[in-house]
Design a protein that fits this description.
With 198 residues, the chain is mainly α. It contains 5 helices and 2 strands; from the N terminus they run αβαααβα.
Length: 198
């Protein structure tokens, strides 16, 4: 996932690396090629949206990500404090190495190693919890976004709307006309839906 406590950046990647998703994208490209060639004469209306952008720029997405970011900052402060204590403990242990007996040093080293393992476990647990939170957000928001895209497509007479965010970095969709990019329209509609639920 995109949010990590060690290097805090809030970026939720929608199903990145999912083999089924890649197959779907390739199938979609094949279908698009057929549709483009078949629809040239029929002049079907095809639109494009960036679901990732909708996710991050919609009011619902901003609110959910704000909550997650606040939790990340809180956890980051706790982890930073533990990390500083470990660093100080390590420095103190290194200073005492020459003056302590071998047994005393080994005892303190074991104590340090135990605390370091606890710290690593806390980081791993925190990242796992964050990944669970991200999944919950995606499960809540993506279906609503898709519903809004479909509603917008029907309302504006599009025969097909393609999500360009899945191919944005992989190069699957190399070009699309900005004229039919419905991302801003969908964000507005999704914001209306989000605010009507309050």
């Amino acid at each position: 996932m995109g949010i990590h406590y060690r290097d805090v950046h809030v970026e939720i990647l929608i199903d990145k690396g999912n083999k089924d998703m890649k197959k779907s994208v390739y199938l979609l490209v094949a279908v698009l090629l057929l549709v483009f060639s078949a629809s040239a004469a029929a002049a079907d209306k095809i639109g494009f949206v960036d679901v990732k952008k909708i996710f991050f720029q919609s009011d619902a997405g901003k609110k959910e990500l704000g909550v997650v970011k606040a939790a990340v900052e809180k956890k980051k402060a706790i982890l930073k404090e533990r990390e500083n204590k470990l660093r100080n403990l390590r420095a103190e242990l290194d200073k005492q190495r020459l003056v302590l007996t071998k047994e005393a040093y080994e005892k303190k080293e074991l104590d340090y190693q135990g605390k370091f393992k606890d710290y690593k476990r806390l980081v791993e647990d925190s990242n796992e919890e964050l990944a669970r939170q991200e999944q919950l957000i995606k499960k809540r928001l993506i279906p609503e976004i898709v519903k809004t895209v479909k509603k917008t497509g029907k309302k504006e007479g599009y025969s097909m709307i393609v999500d360009i965010s899945s191919g944005q970095y992989t190069g699957v969709l190399l070009y699309h006309s900005e004229t039919n990019d419905l991302t801003k329209t969908v964000i507005k509609e999704y914001n209306k839906l989000y605010h009507s639920k309050k």
